[in-house]
Amino acid sequence: MHNSLSGRFLILTTIFVMLAEVLIFVPSIARFREDYLLNRLERAQIASLALLADDMLSPELESELLENAGVFNVVLRRDEIRQLVLSSPMPGEITSTYDLRDAQAWVLIGDAMVRLSKPEAEMIRVIGNPFQEAGDLVEVTMDTKELRAAMLDYGLRILVLSAVISIFTAVLLFLAVRNFLVKPIKGVVGHMQGYALAPEDANRIIQPSASVRELREAEDALQSLQTQLTQALRQKERLAQLGGAVARVSHDLRNILTSAQLFTDRIEMSEDPTVKRMAPKLVNSITRAVSLCESTLAFGKAEEPAPVLTRFNFAEMVNEVFEAERLAIGNADISLSEDVPAGLMLRGDPEQLYRAIANLVRNARQAIIATGKPGEISVSALSADDAWEIRVSDTGPGLPPKAREHLFQPFQGGVRKGGTGLGLAIVSELVRGHGGVLELESSDDAGTVFAIRLPMNATD
């Protein structure tokens, strides 16, 4: 009970209400004491008026009047004359005098607390203004025994009433919190537990229904989270199935390309000059295709294979990429340019970096062709102090905002209609394998620039 939200709320509410009642009790008991003393003054004044009306009262009647007033003597001051009107023997000496004529609230509260803290009876003098303006002042002497007993009785009744009110209020708040907060929260927890049993089932996604704004916001956020997770799990399942299919296709395609590789040996023996010139390029293309199939099969078992580092001429590799792209460009008005120092030697995996640059150039070419306008693709590279910096830029239309949100995520960063969105994801993984970083440096109406940074200390 005390560990639950509603139980703790019940306990705290009871404590806070009791605290509020205690704060009310202190001035209340002070006011009760003041009223008690004023009542004694009024009764004493009435008794003294009886004596003033008949100056020949018997001692027995005087004693009875004082007893009914609850005092031992009464002093009136009228017309600047102080007169002892009624008197009787006092059991002790006067210890304190209290003037109620202009008493401040904090003084009354302090006197009341002092009286409650003193169990022994005392003789006190009380001074106040006469009622109905019958004189200048009225003064009585009285015992505090009955005063303290009346204060204790009143305080006990106030505390009991406060306890009843606090408990009743706490129970009502407990029921309200239980119905309006705890039950909806338990409902959300139940939805979360049910969803955890089968997160792929869209029917288990919570449907917001809370009327409390904060709970409704929590349900909306949970619904969005569950929807995204369910979609991600479904996509993961589809990717797993696709990975199996790609692995099977890559296995068969590798066998076919291996057979084609054998036929290229005879093509290289041809005396035709054109065949001799094109045969090495065909061999290189088939070799890369076989390597790609083998890498795909390896990807099904683990991540992209670790790069095999070696030194190679980057300018020559860029030229190979451009030669392959010129065949794909055909009659399109797209120019290719490179700004790479002829002697720039990189240390990396030439096959993986070829794939990275080829993917970026291919994406740029497809983006420009889609516009139907002429364009330019450029590859530049330089050697900085601690890294090689490579940039692939184009004059295409730029990337749409949606593509930028998931730029390097498989199957989500696609730009071209019908594209898979794998190109940039592959490039990013290949660059990371070299300890480098792939970044989108800029993308607007003037074109797009991708930057690759390969640290020398990670590859040298």
From TrEMBL:
Q: Which InterPro entries match?
A: HATPase_C_sf (IPR036890), HATPase_dom (IPR003594), His_kinase_dom (IPR005467), HisK_dim/P_dom (IPR003661), HisK_dim/P_sf (IPR036097), Sig_transdc_His_kin-like_C (IPR004358)
Write out the catalysed reaction: ATP + protein L-histidine = ADP + protein N-phospho-L-histidine
Asked whether the keyword Lipoprotein is assigned, the reply is: no
List the protein's name. Answer: histidine kinase
Q: Which residues form a coiled coil?
A: 215-242
Q: What class of enzyme is it?
A: transferase
A GO molecular function held by the record? kinase activity
Question: Which Gene3D superfamilies does the entry link to?
Answer: 1.10.287.130, Histidine kinase-like ATPase, C-terminal domain (3.30.565.10)
Span-the-membrane segments of this chain are 6-30, 154-177
Q: Which PANTHER family match?
A: PEROXIDE STRESS-ACTIVATED HISTIDINE KINASE MAK3 (PTHR43065:SF10), SENSOR HISTIDINE KINASE (PTHR43065)
SUPFAM superfamilies per the UniProt record, alphabetical: ATPase domain of HSP90 chaperone/DNA topoisomerase II/histidine kinase, Homodimeric domain of signal transducing histidine kinase
Q: What EC number(s) does this enzyme carry? A: 2.7.13.3
Instruction: Tell me the ranges covered by the Histidine kinase domain, including all copies.
Output: 248-458
Its domain of life? Answer: Bacteria
Task: Name a Pfam family for this protein.
Answer: HisKA
What keyword terms does UniProt attach to this protein? ATP-binding, Coiled coil, Kinase, Membrane, Nucleotide-binding, Phosphoprotein, Transferase, Transmembrane, Transmembrane helix, Two-component regulatory system
| CDD domains registered for this protein in UniProt | HATPase
* Isomerase keyword on record: no
